[in-house]
Design brief:
The chain has 162 residues and is mainly alpha-helical. The chain has one domain (9-154). It contains seven helices and three strands. It has helices spanning 9-17, 39-43, 48-59, 68-89, 95-105, 118-143, 146-154; strands at 18-25, 28-35, 90-92. Strands 1-2-3 form a three-stranded antiparallel beta sheet. α3 (48-59) packs across α4 (68-89) and α4 crosses α6. The two termini are 38 Å apart. The mean pLDDT is 75.
Length: 162
């Protein structure tokens, strides 16, 4: 019989709190340790509800025309949102670590330059959309299950909705 050394509790907790995700970085996939921000935290990243509402309105019957000024505002809010999402999500390396390291290596850097590549920001955002889609599908399957109605009225073990 062999013995397995248990990892320290803190290491096990971190492993259960973060995920290793391959995301694009200037065209190449790299592994990042990511903390999966929940929906409420996501709303705190900025103008997320406004972006979502604007996106939905584009597909609605009563869609409003978006003038050039509003489009610029939406684009700016979107960029801010992507950066806030990255700041809250990146664990190893952290957003701050990456930013400081790149600034130190780039003498031409000026304040206001976007250091984090757009493909990374978009990849992270797509990863979140995929995760939300998976959770939504899973929860819809549970809510639509025939067994759910019976279980809700009996007190028997109910399915867990994430």
């Amino acid at each position: 019989m062999f013995s397995r050394k248990k990892k320290p509790v803190i290491d096990r907790l971190i492993e259960k709190t973060t995920k290793i995700v391959n995301l694009p970085w200037n065209g190449n996939d790299e592994p990042f340790e990511i903390y999966e921000v929940n929906f409420m935290e996501l709303m705190g990243c900025g103008k997320f509800p406004n972006l979502l509402a604007t996106f939905v309105s584009v597909f609605s019957k009563d869609k409003e025309d978006i003038d050039e000024e509003k489009a610029k505002t939406i684009k700016k809010e979107q960029e801010e949102f992507y950066h806030e999402l990255a700041k809250k999500s990146m664990v190893n390396p952290s957003y701050k670590e990456v930013s400081e390291a790149i600034k130190a290596k780039m003498p031409s850097y000026t304040e206001g330059d976007n250091i984090i590549p757009v493909d990374f920001l978009m990849g992270l955002y797509r990863w979140y959309l995929q995760r939300f889609s998976e959770v939504l599908k899973k929860n819809l399957q549970v809510l639509n299950s025939k067994e759910l109605g019976a279980l809700l009225h009996t007190g028997v073990n109910r399915p867990h909705i994430t």
